[in-house]
Specification:
60s Ribosomal Protein L30, Chain: A
Length: 133
Amino acid sequence: MTLERRPHSVAVNLRGSVLFDLGTADLTPKARTILGQVGDVLWGLPYRYVIEGHSDNLPIHTDRFPSNWELSASRASSVARFMMERGFPPERFTVVGRADTQPMVPNVDEAGRPIPRNQLLNRRVVVLVEPEN
């Protein structure tokens, strides 16, 4: 997990490999522990949350996830749903799937070959913590 200050928010970057198994949107047990700790820090504070799901460039084509758009949105929804189950008000959340449109680092090298380490970094969920007003 890393924190990044942005102009109107703080971004909590959570590595997707810790939160989810490859190709799923089901939170791992470790994810539940980490998100529980994040929730403990944020509980009761007057913030809004934008939960962004991000994927790498590897295509997915399943019945549940026809593309990375559905996968990334479902992952963001899983995080938001977990927080709401812990008592966070639903009206404070916005859920966004970004697919592979905003990579942190290039998914491929100059020759177009995949960079597995970078793909791993690009699979993530970002929680933007914003003031309520």
